[in-house]
Amino acid sequence: MAPPPLSTVRQYDPQVYCQGSFRLGTAIRPLTDDEEYDVDSVCEFRLLTRQQLSQYALEPCRCDRVAPSHPI
Q1: Among 1, 26, 46, 70, which is least packed by CB within 10 angstroms?
Q2: Greater model confidence, 64 or 51
Q3: Contact, 16 vs 41, CB < 8 A?
Q4: Is the pTM of this model over 0.70?
């Protein structure tokens, strides 16, 4: 099997963390096994400024990293 492609965003020092009720520890458990948690996450690029790359230009980078493992 081929190794995964190199990250297109690694140079920006991405930090991923939860926000909202999960971060606060107040998430409500789904009532049934058919339901899922709603988890909000943030990906902060600590070494990237808006002058270097706009949010619009950054969107394809995010989708390239998330889409293979999670539907958007």
Answers
A1: 1
A2: 51
A3: yes
A4: no
Q: Give the span between the Cα atoms of 16 and 70, in whole angstroms.
A: 15
Nearest to 61 by CA among 1, 14, 2, 3: 14
Residue 21 burial (CB count, 10 A): 14
Please write the tens of the pLDDT for every residue from 48-59. 888 888 878 777
Dihedral, 65, 9, 58, 39 alpha carbons, nearest 10: 50
Separation between Cα atoms, residue 40 and residue 32, nearest integer Å: 20
3-state helix, strand, coil in the chain (%, to 5): 25, 15, 55
Question: pLDDT tens for residues 9-45?
Answer: 788 888 888 888 888 889 888 899 999 888 888 888 8
